[in-house]
Design goal:
By secondary structure, the chain is mainly β. The strands form 3 sheets. It has a 3-stranded antiparallel sheet, with no helix packed on it. A two-stranded antiparallel sheet has the order 3-5. Strand 6 and strand 7 form a beta hairpin. The radius of gyration is 34 Å and the shape is rod-shaped. The N and C termini lie far apart (108 Å). 10% of the residues are buried.
């Protein structure tokens, strides 16, 4: 134990700890280029048209688990209303011509 520096003991205990690899979220990715050891940070990003829902960063903790929950990538496109296509009506027009007592169509 280091008197006055309680964090040093935690570092010595967690120095060899690493967290499991993380999976990319659907429509996004996770960057663990900083590493997957204690104290390293994983950063989430989403593809164009999507936004991170949940924590954008997670930290590898002393217990070998990543902090927070797994974020998702949610669509930025929202459907407000749906318009139905116009209805087409077929109308038959008959013209009647009278010629004397006979009618022609």
């Amino acid at each position: 134990m280091c008197p006055g520096h309680p964090g040093h003991i935690l570092w010595l205990i967690a120095a060899g700890v690493s967290c499991d690899p993380l999976d990319n979220p659907n429509n996004g990715r996770v960057d663990t280029s900083a590493g997957t050891s204690f104290g390293d940070v994983a950063r989430y990003s989403c593809n164009t048209g999507y936004t991170v829902s949940g924590p954008a960063e997670r930290t590898c903790q002393a217990n070998g688990e990543w902090s927070g929950s797994v974020p998702t990538c949610e669509s930025e496109i929202y459907i407000i209303g749906v318009q139905h296509p116009p209805v087409l009506y077929v109308v038959t027009v008959a013209c009647v011509y009278r010629m004397g007592n006979a009618a022609l169509l």
